[in-house]
Each structure stands twice: as structure tokens, then as C-alpha cells.
Amino acid sequence: MDFAVLGATGDEGRIASKYLIENGHSVLLCGRNPSSIASLIKNKKARFAYTDLNDIGRTAATLRKSGAKIALNCAEFTMNINAMKACLTAGLNYLDLGGLHEMTIRQYKLDREFKKRNLFALLGCGSTPGISNVMAAYAVSKLDSVEHIELGFAWKSNMKSFVVPYSIESIVYELTTPPTILKDGKFKKAQACSAEGITHFKGIGRQNTYCIVHSEVFTFYKYFKNKGLRNIHYKAGFPEHSHNTINTLIRLGFASKEPIEVNKAKVRPIDFTKKVLKKIKMPDGYKEFEDIWVKVDGERNKKKIRIEMDCLGKTLKGWEFAGSNVNTGMTIAIMAELLDREVIKGKGVAAPEAAVPPLEFFEELKRHGFKLYMDNKAI
Amino acid sequence: MGKIIVKDLFETTGKDDEIIVAGRNINEAKRLARPYKAKRVKAAYADVGNIESLTRAIGRAGIVIHAVHHEFNINVMKACLKTNSHYIDLGGLYHYTKEQLKLHKNFERKGLTAVIGMGAAPGITNVLAKHASKDLDKVDSIDIRLGSKDFSTYKRESPLSNTYSVQTLLEEFSWKPAVFINGKAKFIEPMSGREKYKFPNPVGLQKPQYTIHSEIATLPYTLKAENVTFKIAFDDDFFNKIKTLRDLGLTSNDKTMGKETKDIEITTEILKRLPKALPRISRGYEIIRVIVRGKKDSKQTEIIADAHVKAENELIDKDTGVPPSITAKMIADRKITKRGVFPPEEIIPIEEFIGELGKRNIYIRKYQKNKQR
Lengths: 379, 373
Known about the structure:
Helix content of chain A: 25-40%
Low-confidence stretches of chain A: none
Largest sheet of chain B: 6 strands, mixed
Strand content of chain A: 25-35%
Structural class of chain A: alpha/beta
Radius of gyration of chain B: 20 Å
Largest interface: A-B, 25 and 25 residues
Low-confidence stretches of chain B: none
Helix content of chain B: 25-40%
Strand content of chain B: 25-35%
CATH class of the largest domain in chain B: Alpha Beta
Distance between the termini of chain A: 35 Å
Mean pLDDT of chain A: 95
Structural class of chain B: alpha/beta
Shape of chain A: globular
CATH topology of the largest domain in chain A: Dihydrodipicolinate Reductase, domain 2
Number of helices of chain B: 13
CATH class of the largest domain in chain A: Alpha Beta
CATH architecture of the largest domain in chain A: 2-Layer Sandwich
Oligomer: heterodimer
Number of strands of chain B: 18
CATH superfamily of the largest domain in chain B: Dihydrodipicolinate Reductase, domain 2
CATH superfamily of the largest domain in chain A: Dihydrodipicolinate Reductase, domain 2
Number of domains of chain A: 2
Number of strands of chain A: 19
Radius of gyration of chain A: 20 Å
């Protein structure tokens, strides 16, 4: 097998797996619910392996047996450490979709282990973190010094029907956890999901934004502090109908992880919510549009400069089931290919801003329908 | 609701009248009985899902008021038939009401009375419909509209400001409401018919919607009305939240988590656990309006009967808790002597009932449109 996809039966895993298989790679599809990827499993290039990431030993054995050299972890971020340990044991390079703030810090503690085994772990390889990190690195490279970075995402749909935008567990975590921001060179906690006003986004229009927890705050400071970076702020933009729905679910207790007893059985509200929401079908003709954006303020030749980067993605032909999630699931697959082709190189643990060559990566994105802009000019 | 009923019974019944507070949680029942510091208020274990346990708890009780959920109505009625007790409940959400009426002969044979749907709505609504219809020679239509306004100030607000059972609310929002149109019952879309309607002050402009209610199961037949509708108003915030849950599929009868439990049951349990509101000053106003149209002296006439419910430092739900207590006392005092199963409009002595409501700050106003009485 060329690649192993952990969490292949989830939304992002399914997208990454489909991309790799359609590009001629052999893929080991690891997950717990094969029925959700029945059509992928039928492909000659694919093989399914029941995998529970709670069992690191068995996961490692499955990975080792596959012969794959690269694992793409598309499972919930809470499983990142287990997935990394399984890869260390089995001798695979590793990519994931991000660990928000706290998990990312824990993941970096495995840096020495990965280096010792001559392996590379690339953290946060989706749209954001992922594309946002590479765009930030590109902008930072154009400046002598950097003072302030603002970044985030904004998305909209052509219909006001509620469709789960991405992992409901991640969304709930992002909207309910007090985010860490960098202010005047110090990490500080902000209020969970505080409103940040209305912003105009390229390709999206005006939207309310909210301050949420994201891993870029930690990794940008790690890699750009030597350029003088003192402030980092992450903002999420949801269409009003989607934000209201998610907010209602959270406020009414449907995102709680505390088990409740119903008819003598224990049920976690979040598990119930997740399963019910999975049944929501995308309406015919439903399309999503997303802007991944980064604004970098700094100096060049002693002049204050702001560089604005945008990556626009949308529902792609042949990928209608994925909505704008394709921006995340496809991006990790593209980075995995670049790692396989040794365009991306490294050892230990790193984030995309430190390891992914921007121009080669942007070319791959453009080839797959993404549009990239610097200061409103197409790259 | 049981707490309000017990309080009203205690305040209005005689010193020799025993009150049994029965429930599945015996400690809670004891906690509720204790503050009355009276030997005549007792606690007992009873599980409405189990007729044996019910008959033990009811024992020698002459009258049983059933304040648990409507799906247990039939069970409790059967237990009453075994223990020779009269029966009162708070409603059967149309479908259960139909089933309950089938027990008429059983109650009649035993010399027992069952008054079904004897809260605010159903209950006061049915009595008002009868009250208004008495001014007409022939009834054509009955339209019931409920609106309320909360004037409380809060130390802490609840994320969901429901004033009655969460389960009933979710069912009202998800089951198809019955309407009686041109002499036929039909079922329409849940939450439909929401439109602006102006109630008398201080309730004012509200947006009532159709919901499933038991009045539609009885009034067309008892008052010979060709058209009967029921609408209740919820504020926009509440409406939008419940609509969201319904639209997402969280209130369906699917069994997403396994064979045993319906999704609506899990959702009910989740909502039950929400923190309750802590009022600083509790103040509310509700208007229960019944509009009866028909002929009087061959002229088209419209009679409106309103119940004005004012709550000051008490729960607005008193209008649901008080009627069964009043009815129980009427049965005990032999002011109600008909035997069998009856909806309120067929059995409640109207003037006396209105008088009792007045003692509890619930006032009835009846007038012919454009002609205040």
C-alpha cells in the first residue's frame, strides 16, 4: 500500500481516500464503519482494515502490515497522540488535520521520538490549519519583520439549509473552549466564541466573525517569533443560519459529553447529536464556498506593509457530497503526495509553514480548482 | 404541576380530608408533603407504569388526580376502576382522549366519574366554550387561542423558557395537529398556521400556531360545532429553538441510538436537564380565549370568552393546577354527580367553577363582539 488513511470512514478521511485512489495510489482504509465508504472499498486500489485508534498496538500492527510509508490521520483530533504513537511504532511518516491549541502542544513533545526514528510528522494539513499556514509563511517571507497576523475562514452556502459544516465535535470544541490568542508577545485566554464584528470576505461577502481556538496561534509564534511577531488572532466566519443552529444545539445541552440515563441506558448527548445530524441530507443543488484568509502586518525596507492572502475553494464537480470540506480532505492528500514525492521533506514534528514549499503547493491547489490571491491579485 | 395541585387541595379542602402525594420518587413525595406539617398530607410510592403499584398507592382514595404524562392516562384510569376512585386528569393530547372516552361505560357501571382534560387547556377552554355557546341557538365554530407574557425579572434565565412539560411541548411541536373543519377532523402540518394575533392587554400581539390538543376530540361532538381549531402562542426565541431541534430530526420517533429508545425521548431527557430559570420577581399574564360563532335569533353572532390569568410571585401554570383541584372538591361535595367519562364541557357546573377561579385570581370575561357585558 502507498498510503494508510486513519479515520477513512469519516467525512474528511473519505475525501482524502477518494483523492488518493483516483490518483492511482493504493490506500489502506482504516476505520470502524466500512458501510460509510462501501463504494471506495470496492476499488481494486483500496483495502479496508477495521481500526480502533484507542488500541495503539493493533493500529501499529495494521499499519506495519500494510507496507505504507505515510499515514494520513483524518480521525477526531482527540486521537492524534494515539495515531502518532502507532506511526512511530510502525515506522510511518504522519500527517493530520490539526490538534487545536492544547493537543498541538502535546504533539510537539513527540518531536525527538520522530527524529530518532528518522520519521516526519506534519501537523495541521487541511484548509486551516494547512493552507492558511503555507499562505502565512509565503507572506512572512516577503517581509523583513512581522508584528501582527490575523487569519481564519469564512464560508457560505447557496441555500440556507443546515448541513453539518465539518466535524461537529471539533466545532463544539472550537466554539466552547476559551481560545488562546497572542497579544503583545504573550499567550492569553480570550472569551469563548466572542463576537469580533462583521468583516467583508473575498468571494463570500459580509459575515459575522467569532474568535475561536485554533492551532495556528501556537505554531505561527513558534516559527515566526524571530521575525518579531507579537499578535495572532484567529477568527471564524459562519453563515448566520449555520451559526444559530450550532449555537442552539450547544445552549440546549446537545453538545454535552456528560452521559445521561434514558430508559436505563447511558447516552452521551454529543454522540446522539452526531448520529442524528449524520442523517441530514444535502439538498439537491446545494453548494458551499469558502475563503481561507491570512492578513500579515509587518515591515519591509522600514515601511509598514500589510499582505493579504486568500484561498477560495468551493464545492467541486464530482465532489458534491463533500461541500467545502473538500478544501480540508483534499489538501491533506495533496500534502501526502508532496511528501511522498519528497517535495516536502523533514524529520521530527513540524507544521506546514515550516516545511511546505509554498509555490509548489499553490500550483497543486490551483490544479484542483482552488484560487489563490495575494493582495487581491491571483498567484 | 402536581405541586400546584397539592397546594390548592390543601388550602381548599377540609381538615379531615386526606391528601396522598404519590410519585416514583418517594423522597421527593415526602419532601413535598413535609412543609404542610399536617398528618392529612401523606407521601406514597406509585409508578404510573405499573397498575399494581398504583392500586396500592391509591388504596382507599376517593378521588385521584393524575398529573403525570398523558400516555399513562389509561393505566391510571384502570387502577381507579379497581380501587373505586373517581378520576381527573390534565389532558390526553387528542389521541389518548379518544381512547379514554371508550371507558365511559366502565366508569358509569361502577358509579364513578372521570373528568378528562381538566387543566387550563384543555379544561378552562372547554368550560369557556360551553359558557359562550349558551348564548347561541346554534354553534358553527369554536376557535381557541392562548397567549401569555412573562413580566418576570431573573437572577438566571433558562436556555429554554418552557412553562409546562418538555415532553408535551416536543410532542405538540412534532405531532400533526388536529383541526375540525366542515364537520370533519383532519391533521395538518406541525407548527403551521403561525400568524399574528392581538390578545387583550397586557398580553398584546402574539403569534399563535396550531398544535395537537384534546379539545378537538370532544367539542365538535359535545357542542355540535362544524369547525373547531386550537392555537397557542410561543415567543420567537422559544419557537425557533424547538423548530431547530425538530428540523434537525432530534424530535423524531426514529431510534437512532438503538432499539429501545426514541430520539424524542433522548431529546426530552437532554432538555429536562437544562438549568431552571431563577426568577428575582415572578410575574406573568396569560389569556385563554375562546371565540364561539353561531346563530342567535337567526343572526350571525360571535361570543368571546376570555380567562385572564394573573400570576404574582406564583407560577403562571396555576391555571392548569387549580382546575383539577376545584373539580375534585366538586366531586367530593356532590356538586358533580354524573357518572361515566366526561370532558369538562359536559360535567362542570359553569357558574360555580368560574366563581372558584375568581378566588384564585383567574377572571372570566364573556362578551358578544362589539357589545361588552
